[in-house]
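User: I'm putting together notes for a lab meeting next week and I want to include a structural view of one of the chains we've been expressing. I don't have a solved structure, so I'd like a prediction I can at least talk through. The sequence is below, exactly as it appears in our construct file.
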Amino acid sequence: MEKIERKRLEALRKVMAEHEIDCCIVNSTDPHQSEIPPAHWRGREWLTGFKSENGTNGTAVVTKDHAYVWTDNRFFIQARQQLEGTGFEMMPLDGPEAIDLFDWVCEHVETGATVGIDGMTFSVEETQKMKQKFNDNGIKFRTDFPQFDYIWKDRPLRPLNKLFVHDENIVGETVESKISRVLEQVNKSEAEAILVSALDDIAWITNLRTAGDISFSPMFVSYLYLDANGHRILFVDEEKINEDVKKHLDAYNIDVTPYDNVIEFAGELPKETRLMVDPSLTAASVFDNIDCAVVFGGEGVAKLKSVKNETMLSHWRTAMEKDGVALVKLFKWIDDEFPHGNLTEMTIARKLREYRLSDPDCVDESFAAIVGWNGHGAIVHYEPSDETDIPVSGQGLLLIDSGGQYKQGTTDITRTIVLGGEATPEQKHDFTLVLKGMIALARATFPKGTRGAQLDILARQFLWNEGKAYYHGTGHGVGFFINCHEGPVQIRMNDIPVPLEPGMVMSDEPGLYIEDKYGIRCENMLAVELWESNEFGDFYRFRNLTLFPFDKKLIEWEIMTSEEKEWLDAYHKEVYERLSPLLSENEAGWLFSKCMAS
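Assistant: Thanks for the context. Below is the predicted structure for the 598-residue chain, given as structure tokens.
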């Protein structure tokens, strides 16, 4: 049976011809460069069939004769499967077989031809790079081709979910304080105003959240303008504002203006205004309408947001305890149900969501749970669906990567367990290499100024020593009841020139993936804190946040050092002491059996 995506591809090619577009490039985001855009902007997924609840990194390129989707190594297996029969093929964005998207376009599009994009979904930075590249190769470039306005007839509407105030007793900082700190950053760059496009930055500055605009992240579709003269304007659909939110905004002298007014507003600013925009996050079509002096910057807002205060960190302890309770209930339920043969990946994912959301402070999951049994666990970003669901039976490894959006903080944890009998020596050995890497990073101490790339080898060393590897990042920043993935700091092989600072919260998640056999990942969340100051300067370390045991049946104890065993015993002791008072007697007994000293 022909897939519907083929008809959509035909429709796109037809409107391309009508608008004299020879090559159309379609990305995966919205006017705010969101990692997971609202349904209204998930057109590339709709067009190609390559999709997931958590969003997929992919860029489609369509010409008269070709249709491809570029994606990274996390999605290679998934993309090949989902694109089959759609008319699209996968292109590798990274890895040894990587093909540069723009080089491909320049080689396959004739001189004098026209490349078209929707300038509302590409950033200024991306658009300027494309324009330069294509112009250098004699290719015309247009940003006025909103392709889905022409072909997506049943396109979802822009979300209109109500906002709510995130309690400042939990946040630990007022909106006034945040605005003051943001404008201080703006002033340092010799600007006097800022247009904030990133939805996580806006949610952080305003202490406002919503549920439903973006899956798994309580952010809301908006823009925010601030200047040194006291003008504060939130561009948001007014249907989203209730009386409590209006009072909150009035208290901080923030005016509300319709979302669609932002382009007109940007074009009417006084010419002498020095307006800061972030070129990596601002839509090209918004930027093209600005008629005043522009200062590129804005990264400082993300940096401010990434450093959490002690109030946040103290509440995160509560979030982790709530999350730990939900996980105990889930994994005990798995142990109880597995012998009856009724488990599937989807039943486990649904049960996990049920346990998390039974807590009134859990607004949503922080991403769609990754529940992979055996070979599915080797698909790094696999999400079970009704089409892919398989029974969890026999012997093997179950990988569960999940998290919750609690008002007290966002959680992200991965555990890999063995079910159906003893783990094989290969499974144990590979799991232990991954666990050793996770522990090595968690135990690290490092001087002020250290960047994530300088720590990354700690987590990979044991795998590399045996010629094994994973190719995703080792750690990402985690937001406070905002994004599960938060910049600007990361722990990965490529260098991100932002040092780790006390208050930053990171994931620690090495893994190993054996295609068609199993996947292994161990993940905790860590907070950076001051360790000691001496004549050599300030030194930092990580404080563990996550509370749930590792599967000791998967550990090859012979290759664990005494220091690693001591770390693991101390960790399990803390897990039991903090979670057991919150559990039933039966649940606490189960947890005790998982946390006993090695």
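A couple of points you could mention at the meeting. The first helix runs from residue 4 to 18. Residues 181 and 544 are 29 Å apart (CA to CA).

User: Perfect, that's what I needed.
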